[in-house]
Amino acid sequence: MTGFALLTATQQPAPTPPDQRERFYALLPELLASDPRAVALLADIGAGYVDAGPAVADRVINVGIREQLLVSAAGGLALTGMRPIVHTFAPFLVERPYEQVKLDLGHQDVGALLVSAGASYDMAGAGETHFGPRDVALLDTLDGWTVHVPGHADEAQAQLRAALPGDDRVYVRLSGASNARPYGTGPGMTVLRRGNRGTVVAVGPLADRTLAAVEDLDVTVLYAPTVRPFDAATLRSTLSEPDVVLVEPYLAGTSVRRVAEALPDVRHRVLGLGVGTAELRRYGSPADHDAAHGLDADGIRRSVTRFLS
């Protein structure tokens, strides 16, 4: 057979992991059907992808491109006993309606399940208006939030199902990036490997590239699909050398304070890797932004090696 190369099993391209956002849209009707209190609130984003069906269609509300109203309506519905599932892109869900998140949910002490898409720069071609690296840091200024950062669609699905029955405030940060397989759904960290020269905490979709970056380094790697509450107990119990590297897919240094709070009696060093504050004015692709922020495997390796040496 001229011109053809038969791929062996080991040469076959790896299957593409399922998309987290698509999984959420497919799961949403099931979530609504499973709980009569559940109501989905959209701001145009996703409205064309949700096939709710007649049984739950009256509990899918599209408020249009009005993100402050989106969150305020969630607060009002929560006051009546409903369980709002609120969805749009990350900067439109946390940054633009921050006052409503603070007052209409937090100050009124009601719960909602906020589900974002787009992560830090999934929609690179849309530019700064659609970039959301500050979301977790902003929620850190408020009380009582659980924050999930799934690294695989299976993890996101499990976290969404677990979060629906409650009345607390939960944020699920969906990303277009993904690990090849699920590592755990939280809330605690999972030990991916053990070492003696320090600890690297890989958050959500950055686990695979972090493992590749430190493949031949003598370090412990912890996987965190849930970042709030921060799993201090696992960090402490697996600590070898008191050197900790955080690899987070949002604003660099967001969880540095949490490490300090976890190790108040241990002299330690901590390096927070993540998205920098400098605005990158060339749109590029998500991979270009990863490289520019040092969040590709090569960049993570350079930073970890420099820090530990």
UniProtKB/TrEMBL annotation:
In Pfam terms, one family for this protein is Transket_pyr
In terms of superkingdom, the source organism counts as Bacteria
Native species of this protein? Pseudonocardia spirodelae
Query: What residue stretches are annotated with the Transketolase-like pyrimidine-binding domain?
Result: 18-182
Q: Which Gene3D superfamilies match?
A: 3.40.50.920, 3.40.50.970
Instruction: Write down what this protein is called.
Output: Transketolase
- Write out the transmembrane intervals: none
InterPro entries for the chain: PDH/Transketolase (IPR051157), THDP-binding (IPR029061), Transketo_C/PFOR_II (IPR009014), Transketolase-like_Pyr-bd (IPR005475)
